[in-house]
Specification:
The protein is α/β, with parallel strands linked by helices. The chain has two domains: 3-101 and 165-308, P-loop containing nucleotide triphosphate hydrolases (Rossmann fold, 3-Layer(aba) Sandwich), CATH 3.40.50; 309-361. The protein is built from ten helices and twelve strands. Strand 4 (67-75) and strand 5 (78-79) form a beta hairpin.
């Protein structure tokens, strides 16, 4: 499967001035790496306000002037510089923004979707394409002449999605596409994104809603305190024992269906010398407090943890203990059965002897 997008060791910081002329660099994303293939949906899952959307802005080249970026972003094997980003954004890579506020309140929907045209022929061609895509997502001709404030939440999301698809991009970035929607609209949005995969497109889904990620994605990247700490297949999130990082395990165990097993602690707001999860980690070691683990591959997943194998071995030991206990139970049952048979045989022999004595008498 060809990689549409590759992000390698991406770090983003912003220059700020505090207390007048004191310069301060605020690091928001650190050493982020992930990839997306054709016909694949990868979700970046993290808390609100953690900087996930900056990944989308980096790919599209729309970060503010005070941003400092290191690392590498590739699209179809080619490194994306600013010139290349400006050339392909809106064409081969499109954004489904997180807010309907991205729609101009003073323009009708169809005018925004069609955009600027060189001549009447191009305008007619784009209008036909716009109507074709809108119809595909259940937006009839009456929607074309509506202003954004006249749209329902679900309709506005469909307009944003349809507009992003007008140029038939290969990669879509869906930035928080479901907040504020009712359950029916959320389900429709999930199905719409899944259909993009069926069309051979790659999708980067940025969300803080774990339920949406579980229903939509093929793989999930867990975003914690500016770091991607684990990337795993969505089916492994059905059971926390199949996951690698202690935070990811705690996240899944905290779901309502798993009994709300909450853990104390917060994400660090400032850069720390060691692992950002150190203070809350149940399997931490001294090394974790002194240096940061790298994101490494393990059995088809990616993990950023020095001691993840310790958690795996604990699960294996627990399974061994269960198996040993079960074996002991089986052995005990066999012994009991054998003893019962022997006791039954002795009793039967005694009864026969008693009967023989009585008959002789």
């Amino acid at each position: 499967m060809e990689k549409l997008l590759e992000v390698n060791n991406l770090s983003i910081s912003f220059t700020q001035y505090v207390q007048g002329l004191v310069r301060h660099d605020l690091k928001v994303i650190s050493d982020l790496s992930l990839d997306i293939g054709e016909s694949e949906i990868v979700a970046v899952l993290g808390s609100s306000g953690s900087g996930k959307s900056l990944l989308a802005h980096t790919i599209l080249g729309i970060l503010p002037y005070n941003a400092h970026v290191t690392g590498e972003v590739k699209y179809k094997g080619q490194v994306l510089n600013q010139e290349m980003k400006e050339k392909i954004r809106g064409r081969e890579i499109c954004l489904i923004p997180q807010s309907v506020n991205f729609l101009d309140p003073l323009m009708k929907v169809s005018q925004q979707a069609v955009g600027e045209c060189k001549d009447d022929n191009e305008r007619k061609e784009k209008q036909n394409r716009q109507r074709e895509v809108f119809s595909k997502y259940g937006l009839d001709e009456s929607v074309d002449d509506l202003y954004p404030f006249e749209l329902s939440g679900g309709m506005a999301r469909k307009v944003l999605l349809s507009t992003a698809l007008l140029n038939d991009p290969d990669l879509l970035i869906a930035d928080e596409p479901t907040p504020g929607l009712d359950a029916k609209s959320v389900e429709e949005t999930i199905q719409d994104i899944r259909k993009l995969k069926d069309q051979g497109k790659g999708v980067l889904l940025i969300t803080h809603e774990i339920d949406v990620a579980l229903k939509t994605a093929d793989r999930i990247a867990i975003f914690y305190s500016g770091y991607v700490i684990e990337i795993n297949k969505v089916e492994n999130f059905l059971n926390s024992e199949n996951l690698l990082h202690p935070y990811t395990k705690a996240l899944v165990d905290a779901l309502p269906k798993n009994g709300f097993k909450l853990t104390e602690g917060v994400q660090p707001l400032e850069e720390v010398p060691g692992c950002p999860y150190y203070e809350n980690c149940p399997i931490r070691s001294d090394k974790c407090n002194q240096s940061k683990p790298e994101l490494i591959e393990h059995d088809g997943a990616m993990i950023r943890c020095f001691n993840f194998d310790k958690a795996i071995s604990e699960v294996d030991v627990s399974e061994e203990l269960v198996n040993d206990f079960a074996s002991e139970v089986d052995v005990s049952e066999e012994v009991i059965e054998e003893e019962a048979k022997e006791e039954g045989a002795v009793e039967a022999e005694e009864e026969l002897n008693d009967e023989g004595v009585n008959d002789g008498a």
